[in-house]
Amino acid sequence: MRVARLRHQKQRLTYYDLDLKSNSLARGLESIGVKRGDRVAVSLGNGIEYAIVPLNPNFNITQVAAALSHLSATHLIISTEANLPRREPRSNLPLLTQIVPDLRNRRLESALVPSLKNIILVQNDNGRVDTSSFGFITSFSSILSELVLDMRSLPPQGLDPHDIVNIQFTSGTTSMPKAACLSHRSILNNGAQIGDRMLLTAKDVVCCPPPLFHCFGSILGYMATSTHGSAIVFPSESFNAIATLKAVQEEKCTALYGVPTMFVEELELLEDGTVPYEGFRHLRTGIAAGSSIPAELMKKLHRTLNLTELTICYGMTETSPVSCMTTTDDPIDKRINTVGRLMPHVEAKVVDPSNHGKILPVGSKGELAVSGYLVMKEYWDAPEQTAAAMRADEEGKIWMHTGDEASISADGYVTITGRIKDLIIRGGENIHPLEIENCLFAHPGVSNVSVVGVPDERYGEVVAAFVVAREEGEKGITSDEIRSWVREKLSNHLDSAPFLKKFAVVNLGLCLLRLPRNPNSVRMIFAQWEANEPCPSMQSLWMNALRIANASQWRKEIGGHEVVHKPYGASGLASPSSRSLWTTPPPFHDS
């Protein structure tokens, strides 16, 4: 059995190989001064070298420096190039020279990150970057080979299951993401329960294009497969739709992971013949996460990729990350219209957003809160933010308040209606962007859509849907058709429907249109599109938004969402436990 297949690196590892290499890396890191409690930051794409604390390779110098300083990181593992989806490789040398101005110096000195003691460089540039003159930098390969001649495990380090193993930065675009502290116990058990819901076995082969710097790749991907002896395939360093489909075909994958934007791109390649429609009969299950999945897309994945047991899961970085998930045999309407039920050993409640102590009746809409082993320990060095998100009830039980509006049915299925702060209030009427997006996704002429609220003098806010049409020109749909479709299907008003060729996308497919109502972020969005694909109607819409003077009324950040939909267990009900929680990893057997 092969535990990991890294196709772009031409690497195949068994569990035994992985154990030896992990021991080697642990000893190598120890040999360069890493000790218990140190924060080792990693800025890499998907690859064999991955370890945590993870940093998004898309971070700029300001974000990297802020993250390293915030954590007082002692070591940084970084690649010579950052390979990001749909972009040319970007050299990391400018970033490194900002952190350490003189790379030739034999001693690492960084005024920007004073805590930094060592930089470990992963060479992934195929010879494009000359590092021969670097003085203080340690090569990753030397840690595994020259520094470590044996692959024995380290002596006991006095670790505890409740110790922090992963400081995971929440998603963020307009401000520095928060650093959620996750324990060995929380991510091990969450990964195991995710695999249970998918019915993973040692015979399964999971294709995992989502990034390892995100919980989707590291926990839903690696932890779920490793706790069930399944194989995992990483098709490329960053998402590549063609590489993903070829990996599924050639590795005979039984499961496929992705966010809606990934699945849409893969289906388009099959529809236009770029990738032949063959070799997908082995697929049965997978995970759709990252943002809500439209009903029409779910049905296409069933028909086209044989993902008849596709699951939906929801969570956030702060909950390790999945708090709710559908099963492989949930009825299709449950997998389309709900996000399943609560994970074992987890409780949930729906509360009044204006009074968190008031639990709402079953079926009522309110803010979702979850409790249990999966809740993070804290935001690193941010007590005020921790206290705002994690609140104790009268019995002293800690609840993570998600910021999502949800309702829970009598049989425990959860429906997410949107972010509490994402509500569009048009003339006093509450309108949920998700409801209109799902309506528009059902239109045969729509490829992608994002609905936002835009300030308006008359109504306070009006509704705008940014639409990517399936076809352009005379064959394509018009704004009038889009508005008529919404009026026919819903009572909501759609005030504007500008068209784009594509969306600007960050991380796991979160559309920038949906993120901020912060003037600086609006400028960023507009500038990015204006430089590539000018759109007069979009320009007037967003330039109108820039005239809003009171920035405090605008949403400043997206709130740290990580995985998809949302939880179960209304009014404080807990789900049944399927197994006891692990405090130590399960035994692995290599074959």
Automatic annotation (TrEMBL):
It comes from Emydomyces testavorans. One of its GO terms (biological process) is fatty acid metabolic process. Residues 572-591 are annotated as: Disordered. It comes from the Eukaryota. InterPro entries: AMP-bd_C (IPR025110), AMP-bd_C_sf (IPR045851), AMP-binding_CS (IPR020845), AMP-dep_synth/lig_dom (IPR000873), ANL_N_sf (IPR042099). SUPFAM superfamilies: Acetyl-CoA synthetase-like (SSF56801). Residues 435-493 form the AMP-binding enzyme C-terminal domain. GO terms for molecular function: medium-chain fatty acid-CoA ligase activity. Residues 8-380 form the AMP-dependent synthetase/ligase domain. Residues 574-583 have a biased composition (Polar residues). This is Uncharacterized protein.
